[in-house]
Amino acid sequence: MRKSTKIAIIVVIILIVVGIPISSYNNLVSLEQTANSASSNIDTQLQRRSDLIPNLVNTVKGYATQEKSIFTDIANARSRLSGATNIQDQADADNQLSSSLSRLLAIVENYPELKSNQNFRDLSVQLEGTENRIAIARQDYNTAVTNYNTKRRSFPSNIVSSLFGFQEKPLYKASEGSKEVPSVDFTK
């Protein structure tokens, strides 16, 4: 075998040995950043909803003065959401807030003059759009995390991920209580 052929074979082997880990590392970094970005998009949409809620609550307060507990529940849920430190705490607080908002919107049904109020209608439309954005952001996050976690566990990326400490990311999951229909009691 000629010397130049041996050198070429050695260069190809080195490129393969070095190239695969570098490619795997770069893919993992890219997928991790996509998941982080998707998580930030959830935060942005949740903040948008949190910013809308006080306006909606104040509009309803003027009509539904006897429904004070719902306003307290909403305030507590917003506070819990803003203090969430990880994705599961955020999901639990988000579900609590969604439940409280569902109860608030059910209360509105008892106040036809409120439903016809232009400010309330505008806020409701904005809130509905925000809820749709939140749902899409959650789906995008879960897709990004699934892609990242799959790549992280696939060969040969699993070797690179363990060497460089790429950790599994949790999916955005609804809390256990989110499957229950919120109760609304107008007798209080």
UniProtKB/TrEMBL annotation:
<dbReference type="InterPro" id="IPR007156">
    <property type="entry name" value="MamQ_LemA"/>
</dbReference>
<keyword id="KW-0472">Membrane</keyword>
<feature type="transmembrane region" description="Helical">
    <location>
        <begin position="7"/>
        <end position="25"/>
    </location>
</feature>
<keyword id="KW-1133">Transmembrane helix</keyword>
<dbReference type="Pfam" id="PF04011">
    <property type="entry name" value="LemA"/>
</dbReference>
<keyword id="KW-0812">Transmembrane</keyword>
<dbReference type="GO" id="GO:0016020">
    <property type="term" value="C:membrane"/>
</dbReference>
<protein>
    <recommendedName>
        <fullName>LemA family protein</fullName>
    </recommendedName>
</protein>
<comment type="similarity">
    <text>Belongs to the LemA family.</text>
</comment>
<dbReference type="InterPro" id="IPR023353">
    <property type="entry name" value="LemA-like_dom_sf"/>
</dbReference>
